[in-house]
Amino acid sequence: MVEIVDLVKTYDKGTVTAVDHVSLSVKKGELFGLIGPDGAGKTSIFRVLTTLLLPDEGFATVAGLDVVKDYKQIRKLVGYMPGRFSLYQDLTVEENLNFFASVFNTTVEENYDLIKDIFIQIEPFKDRRAGKLSGGMKQKLALCCALIHKPQILFLDEPTTGVDVVSRKEFWEMLTKLKDQGITILVSTPYMDEATLCERIGLIQNGKILSVATPEEIIDQYPDPLYAIKSDAMGKLLKDLRNYTYIKTCNAFGEYHHISFKDSLADPVQGLVEFLRNENQKNIEIKEIKASIEDCFISLMN
Amino acid sequence: MEAEVVIKTDKLTKKFGDFIAANAISFEVYRGEIFGFLGANGAGKTTAMKMLCGLSRPSSGQASIAGFDIYKQTEEIKKNIGYMSQKFSLYEDLTVKENIDFFGGIYGLKSKDLKEKRDKLISTLGLEKEIKQLVGSLPLGWKQKLAFSVSILHDPKIVFLDEPTGGVDPVTRRQFWDLIYDASERGITIFVTTHYMDEAEYCNRISMMVDGEIKALDSPLNLKHQFGVETMDDVFYELARGAKRKGD
Amino acid sequence: MKQFLSFVKKEFYHVFRDKKTLLMLFGLPIVQITLFGFAMTNEVKNAKIVICDYAKDQASQEITRKFEANKNFKLQRSILSYHQIEREFQKENVKLAIVFPANFNEDLMHLKKVQIQIIADGSDPNTANTLQNYANSIIMDYQMELMNIQKLPYSINTEIRMLYNPELKGATTFVPGIMALVLMLICVLMTAVSIVREKEMGTMEILLVSPFNPFLVIVSKAIPYFLLSLVNLAVILIMAVTLLGMPIHGSLLLLVAESALLIICALSVGLLISNITKSQQAAMLISMMGMMLPILLFTGFMFPLENMPKALQLFSNIVPSKWYYIIVKSIMLKGLGFAAVWKETLILVGMTVFLLFLSLKKFKTRLE
């Protein structure tokens, strides 16, 4: 459905490279996540795919159509939700919806069943001006407006950024339901924990793709056994771990620190615990864990 | 060890007309603590923080920040705290050095002191080569780290951080938290709000605001036990689910 | 104190690193002084005049020579009959006509009293007054000369007639100017800002990624402003006519049609500005600063264009409101029809078409 080959996009007369030889593909009906921090190049890629920007090098196709030559046709079958809220603040929910329906030569009634589940959540506010909605409701409205013409493919650029945790969860539930309708969905997000909700993901940093696979595949590809460790003095623990020669990686992860060992030892845990006890660490708890997407991202970054 | 109380609030309230943004907030924060202040947008977090920083006058209730009264001594409060937010931290069209010098001057640092601290800051962050570069040209992660370091240039008692790590890559986020740990060990109290639930885990204690009130206040571990869940994410979800005010 | 100085130092950094502000800070005063310095003279030079000399005798020709020699006047031609005067004012843009009655010299010598008629273009009262004073002083000069030579009390009276504006109302100059100013400024500003606002808010992005032709977005914005500007026009006219006693001698329909043309021209300028600016602030700045000054200086209602240096006069030709001003005065004050203003109308149409073409070409179907 979407095919990107060796895409390059620069700004400021070539001084800033936002997209650095990116290649990936998305299958029809897939829920694909583009995961990466700010400045990774996610928005630039989306804008090239939605024909808003021209690539400097490489090419891309959407539904078999070239983003440069066939842009007019692409614009007919794509649904787009850009980064910040970009609907009309001084129009009501209903007015926005009707307007976008007519821009796409359709009516709200025609494709109502597609947006029904989402719309009933904001329906009580249908006469309220869009600018006065809460963050979560704005996102839902923007999603409805992007869907109203039954697009073949949906591009959602950071739809959950700045939205409260509850609305974020609800939003992803809605996306999964939409997938069942056969719509291909591309989502970009900086939140690593949302990666597991996608069918396939692309990890991106500084304009380069770190990895493209299913979440499970990426986790399986984590190079070493991973352990979670905690003690009574987490701040000191971090320093101690970094001082320990056999530690390969050590990253804080909230309640636990995640660590991996250098290859050489037979029973690395034993040696570590002894070392830590010598450093006066109390209540040491250590267990082997499966890597999370964030662990993989950090590992791929280095 | 007797913990010194640096922030104490007693039924602190802020009303805008009939709307009660923050409702009778009462809590204490201890010296050197990393205190997480969580809540959805619109729950009253920002309102509460503005009051604590001396930026907004409470409608009722009492509070003392770093030992100063929130009504009568707002200027002293401002001199003893640091502040950093995602929306604004440093001037993009000034260089690294100019920014440090400017804020040092604002905080009333003497030239010798300022030079010492500036040199230390630059070497800690490894910005020797970038010292004459405009801040606007730095990558986001470096900006955030620099902004934080500048906000504690004057060794304040408390530093308020408003969503400091938004949008930054996981490695830089952790480097940022390294800086926070360091500051906490030096005795600076950290008052931080964040959307990242794993960052809530780094805090010694957390408070959660829902609908203008503090609905939970405890260490992350205790909160997880209390709600019988595995992660802070789930704690937040349990508390926020019933909220009436969701989002801005 | 130290803190205060820190702030001052920082503000200097901000100012010097913002090239656009610097340009305005230093550039604008220089431009203004230059332009206003050159444009602002109340002196009138090279005003076109005609002489209708029924006498053709020694005295009348002597006075005519004086007029010819005077730098303030430019003798366009001598005409034979009084009836031709009207035509000269209408077609040739003549400002003043001098009429000598038959037997001028004879009456002067024998009766010691005679009358010259001075007819001035009252549609620009300030200029008319100035010219009238110049004319009077020339005639007085001659009268003085005569008296000195012949030691007799000669008296040459002048009968003044103001065409098109007998009561010399100031409104007649500035109301058409205000019409031009208001219509142009409002339309340019509103269109530019409205379009750029879509870009700034991000709604333009969504509209671009749709089958709807984005150029039609622009047109749809122009329509409310077009209609509202017509309402503005109606209000100005009503107020001018009722409160200021401004006449509408010509066809109201033609006036409205020409005004509609100016509005469309202004909308195209706004369109062009919106294509090249990214922020509403920039759009507002360019619209107001970039348009206000030329319109004020070069429309011709604040300072007469004939007095400006040639270079500035040439420049005024590309300011649409200049042509509109001429058209409006011709219709409202002189009661002329399309036949008199077809040239200016054609110029306006040409400008509009050119601007529309340019904005269409420059219109971006993508974000950069």
SSE blueprint and pairings:
The complex is a heterotrimer of chains A (302), B (248) and C (368).
Chain A: E1 2-11, E2 16-26, E3 31-35, H1 42-49, E4 57-62, E5 65-66, H2 71-77, E6 78-81, H3 93-103, H4 112-122, H5 135-147, E7 153-157, H6 165-179, E8 184-189, E9 200-205, E10 208-213, H7 215-220, E11 226-230, H8 234-243, E12 247-253, E13 256-261, H9 268-278, E14 285-289, H10 293-301
Helix pairs in contact in A: 3-5, 4-5
Chain B: E1 5-16, E2 19-30, E3 34-39, H1 45-52, E4 60-65, E5 68-69, H2 74-79, E6 81-85, H3 96-106, H4 111-125, H5 140-151, E7 158-162, H6 170-185, E8 189-193, H7 197-202, E9 205-210, E10 213-218, H8 220-227, H9 232-241
Parallel strand pairs in B: 3-8, 3-9, 6-7, 7-8
Antiparallel strand pairs in B: 1-2, 1-4, 4-5, 9-10
Helix pairs in contact in B: 5-6, 8-9
Chain C: H1 2-17, H2 19-39, E1 47-53, H3 58-69, E2 73-79, H4 83-91, E3 96-100, H5 104-111, E4 113-121, H6 125-150, E5 155-163, H7 171-201, H8 203-208, H9 214-243, H10 252-276, H11 280-298, H12 310-316, H13 320-332, H14 338-362
Parallel strand pairs in C: 1-2, 1-3, 4-5
Antiparallel strand pairs in C: 3-4
Helix pairs in contact in C: 3-6, 7-9, 7-10, 7-11, 7-13, 9-10, 10-13, 10-14, 13-14
